[in-house]
Design goal:
The chain is of the alpha+beta class. Helices cover 46% and strands 16% of the residues. Helix 1 runs antiparallel to helix 2.
């Protein structure tokens, strides 16, 4: 087995992948997830396809140039999603082959990727982006805006902007209310007793 030593950029991409939240309503990883995967295993084309036996058209997300039958080398990983459904992630290179390190990296990230394609949260009325959910998850863990900015490698003003968008989408006015809404502790229509029960 190949020893993996990750550079700073790969470490950042792996951190993002590990804290990524599945896209609501679809098992296909987001473009952001594919971009992080491309940092970890560089490819000319990176595609994620969900094939649902009940539907005729597959759902697909991809980055890079269109894949062709003339690809020089491919790496593929498949995940069962339900009884008959499959999510396939494909890395393709047009001129060079994948190394043993690339194959080892795919084995390393497979569990994180499996989590992203298996968990299918219900869509929220005003869906948050993956980055907004990541920021809000860090808020829920007690991090300050400065800590979140440092951890995610973004400006503190960007964190504030993500939180502003989150508050607007969730219909709340502050950090605590947003975290409660995200964790579904503050669902409209619950009486006080039910709200308290959800908070314990």
């Amino acid at each position: 087995m190949t020893d993996l030593v990750l550079n700073v950029e790969e470490q950042r991409a792996l951190r993002h992948l590990l804290v990524a939240i599945p896209c609501p309503g679809t098992p296909v990883p987001s473009v952001h997830v594919l971009e992080w995967l491309a940092v970890l295993v560089p490819a000319d084309t990176l595609t994620a396809v969900f094939r649902d036996r009940a539907r005729c058209a597959p759902q697909q997300t991809s980055i890079g140039r269109a894949a062709t039958l003339a690809d020089h080398d491919r790496l593929e990983i498949e995940f069962a999603n339900g009884d008959d459904d499959v999510v396939r992630v494909t890395w393709a290179r047009h001129r060079t082959s994948f190394s043993e390190r690339d194959r080892a990296m795919v084995r390393l990230i497979a569990p994180a990727l499996a989590r992203l394609v298996h968990e299918r949260p219900a869509p929220t009325p005003a869906c948050l982006t993956a980055q907004e959910r990541t920021v809000l998850g860090r808020v829920a863990a007690g991090a300050t805006n400065a800590q979140i900015a440092r951890d995610l490698g973004i400006a503190e003003s960007t964190v504030r902007k993500h939180l502003e968008h989150t508050y607007r989408k969730l219909g709340v006015s502050g950090r605590l209310a947003a975290v409660a809404r995200l964790q579904e502790r503050d669902l409209p229509g619950l009486d006080l007793k039910e709200r308290i029960a959800r908070m314990v």
